[in-house]
Structure formats: C-alpha cells, structure tokens
Hints:
Blueprint: H1 10-13, E1 16-26, E2 29-40, E3 43-47, E4 58-61, E5 65-69, E6 80-86, E7 102-106, H2 109-124, H3 136-145, H4 153-165, H5 179-190, H6 201-216, H7 228-240, H8 242-253, H9 258-275, H10 278-281, H11 285-296, H12 304-323, H13 325-328, E8 346-347, E9 354-356, E10 361-364, E11 372-374, H14 393-460
Helix pairs in contact: 3-14, 4-6, 5-6, 7-8, 7-12, 9-12, 11-12
Amino acid sequence: MQRQPIPPARSHKQKIEHSGWLRKQGGRYRNLRSRWFELKGDQLYYFRDNNEPKTPIASIPLPGNEVVRYPLDPGEPGKFKFEIVSGKDKEGRPVSSNHDTFVLIASSQQEMDEWIRAINRIIYAPVGGGMFGRSLAETVRFETRRGGGYVPFIVQKCVDFIRANGLSEEGLFRLPGQAKNVAELKDAFNRGGSPELESNKAEVHSVASVLKSYFRELPEPLIPYDYFEVFLTAARCYEMYEEDGITAIQKQLKTLPKPNYILLVYLCRFLFEVQEHSEQNKMNVRNLAMVFGPNILRSGSEDPQVMMESTNLVTELISILIRKHDLFFPETEDEDLHPMRQHSGILNLCDGAFLYSGDSNLIDFNSDSPRMQRSQPIMNYQPEHEEDIAEDPRSHIQELENELELQQQQIKDLQVKLESACKVQEMLTIRLQDELRARVSAEDRLVKLQSAMEEFCAKYGSWEPPQT
C-alpha cells in the first residue's frame, strides 16, 4: 500500500492523546523495528525516536479504519499484536484511502488494550462511540448536541436492561459476566452501536460488568480527583456529627461539574433500587458501595497506603449517598436526567438507525465498523413544505447555550483546581515553617546540652570507661 503523506505542521501543534514505543512488522521492511508512536488529531504518527525535535516517518489516517486484534500465539510469547485496517461498507468495499499497513506489537496485554482503546476513541467518536476511556464531558457534549441528556446512552441502556431483567439476580455487580460477552458488548458500544441484549442470567452479569467498566475506565472517577480530600473530610464529619456531615456533603455536591452531578444522581437512585431487592440479589447498600466506591471516588495517588486508608471512608460515603439519596438528590423535573430525547438530527438513535454526518453520507449505527453508506445527496431532498428546509433557531440557541454552560463549568473547574493548588501550597509553607522552627529548637537544645556537658566535665572531670 502507498505511504500516506504527512500533513505539514499538524503533527507538532495538536495535543498528544496517547504515545509510546511499539514494534512494527511490515511496510517496506518485513523485519521488526521499534518505533515511537503518537496519536494526535485523527492521525497515528510514528518516529524513529522520541527525542525533540522529531520528524515523523509517516502517519496512519484513522477515520474510516478499524482495529484488528490478533489472537495470542503460544509460539510467540510476549507479542501482543494488532493492526489498523480499512473499514468496509455493506458491499465489502474499503472505506478509507490506502496507507502503510503493518502489524503493531505491544509488550503487554495492558499496553495493547490501552492503545486499542485510544485509537477506537478517535475512529468511532464521530458516530458516538469510543466512550470507554473517554471523558464524561466529551461524551455529554456529543450527546447533548444530538438530543441526549447528561446521562450517557450506554449507562441508560445498561440500567434499563438490568432494571427490567436482573434486579433480583443473586450476586448482581459482584459476579463477573462472561469475558467473551463483555468484550463483544463493549466493542459494540465502542463502535457507536446499540447492541441487542438477551434476557438471560449470563447476559445480566455481562451487562452489569459493562456498566462497571464504563465507570472504571473514565479518565477521572465520577467525583473528580480534586474533590477527593474534601469529600473524605465531609465523610469524617458525618461520622462525628451526622447533621454537620450532611451539611458538608450537600455543600460539596453543589460544587461538582453538572454532568458529574447528574450522573451521580442517576446512579445513586438506581443503586437504591438494586438494594431494595437485597433479599434476592444479596447486594445491600454496603456491598454496592464497596463495588462502586472506587469508580465513584478515589485518590489520584498510586500510593497503596493512601488507597488502603481511604477505602473504608469511601465505602461509608457512597453508602450514605445511596441510602439517603432522597435527602441529597431530591426529585426534580430536570429534563437532563432523561437521556436520548428525540432530536431532528437523529433517527431512532436508541434503535441504532442512521445519523446524518453533515454531508451526503449516512452513518450506520448498527454496522460492525463505522461504515459510510452512500445515499442520495441531501441537497436533492425535496420536502413537502418549504419550512422543512429552514433551520429551527431554537435548536441552534440551545446548542450555543449548552456549549456556553460547559465552558463556564470548565472555568469553574479550573478555579477549583487553582484553589486546591493554593491550599496545598499554603499547607507546604506551614509545614516548612514548622520544620524550620523544629530545627532551630533542636539546635538550641544541642547548644544547651553541650554547655551542660562542659560544665559537668569541668566540675567532676572527664569520665572514662573502666579497663577490663
């Protein structure tokens, strides 16, 4: 295949979404070569090394492609292979243009999974996929523009299925689903599809595992890292004085970003429903809090001691949020809690139909890859009435308002981070001052001790140990 030209200057200005060393096999040379890869924009660039400044050897365009995962070969341990190939339309014809093709080899299963997730986020983002590992704000921004609410479609789909088929299933959220089923469901959601879910016990646990995976793979937990300490402090306050603790928790909940707050409301209400069937499913409030706690609130630190010390407090806090959800999250008529409202730009999205892509293409949500099905040009569409052509200004205003609200929330988040950084700096300054005072005090005690020893020796003479 022909080498893809590298877009000029683009490779240096865009944000690096993922990077690292991979071995590649293919291209002009068939032998293995280690190369530095960077995922930026909608291109995967590769370089001879990671030194600055660096010039890419070539790039792989991602739109219209798909990732093929190779099965593990017992004869080649330590080689985790995958390849980026062209997606195909319903007639089996390649969608994307030619590019260098070769097998990419990671050094571990985790490394390969991280690369595949990052690449799929780019490939399937235009059709609403790639949500595993994608930030909640990005998912909400995409879905609200197309008529959705602040609860991601994947969460609503899984919750609705479990509510209808599995609330009484023993070990719900504790027992894992079948690995193959979970992988297939995640892949279907990642491709922007709406997979059909079968009403059987195996499927219930698989769907529950997919739901847990979505929260677990968010770049930040549902309650972001910056809120970790303040929520733990509120939980400690609750342990000592319940009323003061409730007030402290309510105060911190009000500061959460709106998408995070609304999804937390949705999840806590659902988990309360689950625990109402605890006699059958054996999942009481505390069991659910232990399962979901680390996905809702955890420290950004990788220190095992920090994680162990905070586990009980996190479990207790999430138990409180579930048990007292009526107090913390009073019922409202907020439309944002009802995701996937119909919109003029989406045709039966929940059933996986087609979405206008902005040109003369239709994106097929039910396909196994982001296939682009060619239709008649939209400009040839003849409406029955002239007003069908006119754009509804209210939808445009609503879109602008949503964008403004998200930007304002981002500003608020940055202010919270700045305040948190200032508090950390203040604490470090106080600690440094305490250490300086302790040092001066120790030096003063040392001088006094030396003086006392000299006075003792002058009065009684120096002491020597007896000879043996």
